[in-house]
Amino acid sequence: MKKLDWQIRIGLILVVVSIVLYILHYLIFQNFHFLSEYTLFYFAFMPIEVIFVTLVLDQLLEFREVEDRMEKLNMVIGVFFSEEGTRLLKEFAASDPDIEQIRNDLVVGQKWTDRQFEDVKRRLNDHPHNIDINKVDLENLRNILISKREFSVRLLENPVLLEHESFTELLRSVFHLTEELEFRKDLKALPQSDLIHIDKDMERVYARLIGTWLDYMKYMKKRYPYLYSLSMRTNPFDVNASPIVTQ
Description:
mainly alpha
């Protein structure tokens, strides 16, 4: 209501200013014919002006707002991978029995195009994202997740996540896996049925992590080459990855 009152006051002020300027114009130049002719011309042009403002400028402003929101969102996603996501990817990829089928596809390059990113993402849809739970250090994974839980909570509190349902689902699946591991006191004495259950939770996180990571790499390649360079050199799927620049 306060916003509406403010807009009404501004509108009334602008109308009064227009009337005063018209009166001043008449008092100075004493040319009512020109003034009326100009006013009629302006009103005749007004529908075109309205179309331009509402359809063109409004769309441009909306596009800019979307761009700004996506920029903030990708900043949040970048922080997630720096703090937690890349480490989780490395853990899960090391336990993926089929990783060699997609490893080369995920070693992204400096000259990759948007089409290459999209092609790899389509191929990932056919990847089973299996995890051999016997290769996973569950206690270490639990410690990683619990140590980053507060950080993940702060991410979920960020309103920009409303713009990215898939990333929100990723965080939700990470939280669920954290709780599943935290509630179990002895992770080394779990029955096979429970291990299968936890394995499914890890695979859910793994599948969502890879897709989000690939999208984020594509974004950095286009917008922030220096960030993309570091991410290539610390690629969790590249067995030869090193942060050291050698050429």
